[in-house]
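Final report, Chapter 2: Outcomes

The project's central promise was a pipeline that accepts a single protein chain and returns its three-dimensional structure in a standardized token representation, suitable for archiving and comparison. That pipeline is now operational. To close this chapter, we reproduce one record exactly as it appears in the project archive, with the input sequence first and the structure output second.
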Amino acid sequence: MVRMLNWLVIGIGDITTKRVIPAILAEERSRLAGIVTRDPAKAARYEVKAYTDLREALKTEEIDAVYVASPVYLHAPQTLESLRAGKHVLSEKPTAMSYAEARSMVEAAEAAGKTLGVAYYRRTYPKLQRARELLKEGVIGQPLLAYITSHDGLPGEDGARTWLTDPAMAGGGPLYDVGSHRIDVLNFLFGEPQRVTAQLSNTVHALEVEDSATVMIEYPSKVRGIVDVRWNSRVKRDEFRIVGTDGEMELTPLNGPELVYPGGREILPPHANLHFPCIRNFVDAVLDGAPLLSSGASALWTDWVTRQAVASAAK
């Protein structure tokens, strides 16, 4: 008999309807068991039980795992409640509003003996998996500098996801939103960060959150990572390159398939549904004990960098 993981999904928005729920429906050992939403009508097409109250939903014994896809300020309380109810949790990024909240989530998972993952799905990219192998092989010598960007216009101008510019709901601006993904990419490739300096500013938009952030991270191997994220550019950028003593690795655009390095060029596209490999890895971790690519513990380092960056910028 095939063991299954029964999922409860919190939230019916772009991420869940376009990626998370389709991934759960496509994953062979997953079953969508329920949806938590303020508007049950939105969940009707999935033909599963819709709940307006998380506590009520967590009383359902058949539910094994919860996908938290609410705004950032709800990640910690909903994750903690789910873990204490005996459920495994996979949360959207960033992990929480603060490092302290994120740490409390990791500690709660350990206390409950449950799996906590954070959906930093870029760790599943074949291109990044291959890049990590090549770096270990020394294809560019000693890595010295990693430069990664995400530039775009202001979110919410189309009326969607306007909560991203509310610090009470999102924690911060592009540093928290798109920056967290890129910080996690650097942590995935280079390990636990050691030192952080940063500048946050409102260069174009007078928002309650920053419209741009530049972060410099130093790793134990002495490689320096520069993360530059912006909501104030009319020119979209998704750059990523790594400079070493003996060459350069080009991964621009980060979300594209191409990987170029001294003596080689490979085309390694991500899955058509970016969340599918993340869901599958989580299922394998829960049911088979497989290594979790993006755990609460690994994601905690991104929250640590964010905390250090905000403190550095405030000096």
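Archive annotation: Residues 5-121+276-294 form a domain with the Rossmann fold fold (CATH 3.40.50.720).
This record, like all others produced under the grant, will remain available to the consortium after the project formally closes.
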